[in-house]
Amino acid sequence: MLMPAQQIYGLHSDSIDLSVCHSKPYESCDTRCAAGCERILMDNPADSVAYYKLAVRALNSPGGPFMPEVDTNLRMCSYVGNDESAICEILYAAVTAYPDQFSIKSRPANHESALAWAEQAGERNYAEAKWVLATFLALGKGAEYPDLKRAYKLMDSTSDVRPEREFALLYAVLLDHGWGGTQNVLEADYYSKVGYAWYKNIARRSVSRLDNVFLAMIVRFGYIMGDARIIHETAWDLSVSRLLPESVEYTPDELEDLLDSDDDHSEIITRFFGKELLAAALGSEDAEMKAKEIEEIIRKYDGGDIIVAAKEYAEEHEAKIKETRQNILKVSLTDRKSSASARRKSPGRHTGKKQQGFVRSFFNTTANGFRRAGDAVKSVFSD
Q1: What's the predicted TM-score (pTM) here?
Q2: Nearest Cα residue to 167 out of 123, 121, 213
Q3: Which single residue of 12, 151, 203, 280 could bond 134 by disulfide (Cβ 3.0 to 4.6 Å)?
């Protein structure tokens, strides 16, 4: 029996709508995608991906993020309450913690609320949500202090799905030093290779804004804790990316071009060389070898002042980073629970509230040593 033409078109249209709305990458949604997602939600108001894509569409509005639509779609997605709701809660955590990364000018950062959204996502059966939560816990965002034990446990709890992308870097750091759990150098080496291969290949300029938020958090954690490899692997990129946005990895030729330039790049070169010297002092053999090569190149261009300044830079920060790390480990590796109140709060109850001192870095909530080290670590991390 033949079906009416209108019914046949309807079935075909539903199939097309679903395909267009659910197409990857999830971080983009054009006009056709948005129309498809809206039609899908008319028939299935529990489609988490459709809500997510519409929120992404609103975030990328030509006139700037349209936050009422972003909020509505992400909250509806979370309310659905299935495992895929985690993708919306992850995005909401990032948007809430780092609105500037999404060009949101209408609201300040709220790290406590962001942690609550990450906590909610982490309760889902969704591996990446646990990695995101581990990132917040390791850095101590939204909490009174970092919780390395719990971060390690969360990364370790998804062994059926290996951490990838920037989250592989976090797991590598935790494993390499035994911060939060058992030290495992072999596993750390595996995850380092996975993470840094991704980091070099994406060349950061093409990474999604969502990935870039968590990448920056993880690199920040590595610098604060004085992980020699993260400092070594990112020294060039974080120093010269504004001058050479296409260049992620150091080459002798590019360094010589900077030294030979008519413009004065001595401050940037000092920062780069200082980071490599710092990584070497913290135990990176690769950084030690590279530092020798860099010093020879700088001497060719009569850069004695740069060498002196870079060594002072490294010496100044090494002791302060070690002090900071010792303080963090002392606090975070105790049996005390991290930010229990933030975990138990419903994100929806306080996301829109005016901040009342919620946004604090852990430097401001522990010993004076944290505060003294804060400015030093910030200068290491900055461009």
Answers
A1: 0.83
A2: 213
A3: 151
